[in-house]
Amino acid sequence: MFNNKNILITGGTGSFGKSLTQYLLKNFNPKKIVIYSRDELKQSQMISQLQNNSKNKILRFFIGDVRDFERLKTAMNKVDIVFHAAALKNVPIAEYNPFEAIKTNILGAQNVIQACIENKVDKVIALSTDKASSPINLYGATKLASDKLFIAANNYVGKAKTKFAVVRYGNVMGSRGSIIPIFLQFKSQTHLPITDKRMTRFNISLDEGVDMVRYALSNHIGGE
Fold this sequence. Notes:
224 residues; single chain; alpha/beta; 17% strand
């Protein structure tokens, strides 16, 4: 499935991107893995973390933003599979910076779709969130719009072979910005801070998230 393939991960220095990269290096022999992100510090840290991996020569680190279509188009040259994980994900910050959230989560999604079609990428999996289901905040609304763009993209490909699908899951346990590191800061206290006692949280581990995306890539026919 991944052997001898060129793979690109947007937001590749995030928790999911790093876990997916390690999974691919451990279990497959891709031709190339492109880590596409806008944070040079996280890229430098990821390079250091993987420097002892015998397969690290297949890694390519691209500084770029999903808002930048031309950079995306260049990075996707001869790429077979794209995982789109880049997003502005913090709910309060998205509420306070709505224009920025729209530029990254919606317009960025459009750029990814266009670049994939123009580069004749085979398969595209976009990562979404449970907050996109009946959204009550801007972050969820932007991801719902992004989801709809990726599903509709299957109608835009024409004679191209690109297939698009979306996966949604809940809070990734232990990832940056998740609730568990926050709870751990309060472990010596008698109470844990929560947003609302009526809230339901859906949790998934990073390994389960990677496995879900792998399953989606193996089984999707486009449009799910």
